[in-house]
Amino acid sequence: ENLFSVRMRAAKENDGDERGIHISGGEGLRLYHQIQELAEELLQKALTHERGKPDTIHLSIEKVKENPVFVPPISIKNHEANTVEGGREVACQLLRNIGISENSIQSALQHMKKPKSIRGAALIDEVSGLRLDQRGDKGVRVSRMDWDVESLRFMQKSDSSLVHQRAIEASALANKVAFYPEVVAELCWSDDPGYTTGYVTGQGIYHRIPCLKESGNASGGRVFFIRHDVQNIEDLIHRLERQPVLIGW
Ligand code: PML
Questions:
Q1: Pocket lining: 170 vs ligand 1, CB cutoff 6 Å
Q2: What are 62's strand-pairing partners?
Q3: Is the pLDDT of residue 116 over 90?
Q4: Alpha-carbon distance 37 to 35, whole Å?
Q5: Which of 13, 90, 106, 226 gives a 20 to 30 Å CA spacing to 37?
Q6: What is the percentage of the chain residues whose pLDDT exceeds 70?
Q7: Quick check: CB of 24 below 6 Å from ligand 1?
Q8: Beta-strand (E) ranges in 42-151?
């Protein structure tokens, strides 16, 4: 039976920026008879988000023809930090331990600091820090992934952070990204001014780190550190955006 990709994105109008201001988004992969439930959940999320009332809501539902790949989840480690300086230091140290160069780490921090956040992810070289995708402000939008419901329930028994909706969604994305051998690591924190926890993934661990930015700060995003010897970046981008992936066993 085919899966359907159900996606929502809500935005507020913004003079001078045709994309508007991102308010909320979300997505999942479901069977036909489960579409309505997820669509209602996503619509509810769009209509009641603490960032305010959206001017536009896009809800798209699309049959996925390809069979999904099952990707076993990576483990979760919760770190501690009380200051932004401390949180950033944890993130940078983890990236160094994974083998990311200092240049590349600094380049990533620059991408995350831009006043107008990149919508999707920026792909950068793990050694030089040079940007590898040609997507500008749009970036690469990872899509078509979801937790397998039973596997998520199982994971929730051993990790309490997976009760937060944010962590569930972000870890589904991070698990998909980590599945591709061309991606060495990921750094992410939200562009939502009210959400300051972010993560680093690499070497099979999702590291949750509190305090990666000041509350009230609206800059954030995602950076993927790509193997220096990557052969075909366009093919990787295609899989990140289009290949259906279920996280679980
Ligand atoms: C986002 O929603 O934009 C990123 C959220 C990162 C969530 C990290 C976590 O809570 O595990």
A1: yes
A2: 5
A3: no
A4: 6
A5: 13
A6: 98
A7: no
A8: 56-64, 69-71, 75-78, 121-125, 145-147
Residue 54's identity, in one-letter code, is P
* Tens digit of each residue's pLDDT (9 = 90 or more) over 31-53: 999 999 999 999 999 999 888 89
Tell whether ligand 1 has an atom less than 6 A from the beta carbon of residue 131: no
Q: How far is the CA of 189 from the centre of ligand 1 (A)?
A: 6
What are the residue ranges spanned by the domains of the chain? 3-65, 70-247
Tokens of 59: 């809800």
SS3 27: strand
Using only C-alpha atoms, the chain has a radius of gyration, in whole angstroms, of 17
Ligand 1 contact, 121 CB (< 6 A): no
Which residue in the block uniquely carries the two structure tokens 């550190």?
Answer: 225
Q: Which atom of ligand 1 is nearest to the CA of 191?
A: 3
Q: Extract the tokens encoding 104.
A: 């590349």
What confidence tens digit (pLDDT) does each residue in 157-210 have? Answer: 999 899 999 999 999 999 999 999 999 999 999 988 999 999 999 999 999 999
Three-class secondary structure of residue 113 per DSSP: helix
pLDDT at 93 over 90: yes
Neighbouring-strand partners of residue 199: 188, 208
Strands 221-226 and 121-125 come out as parallel
Residue type, position 157, single letter: K
Ligand 1 pocket, mutate which of 118, 155, 189, 217 (most atoms under 8 A from CB): 189
Helix/strand/coil for 18: coil
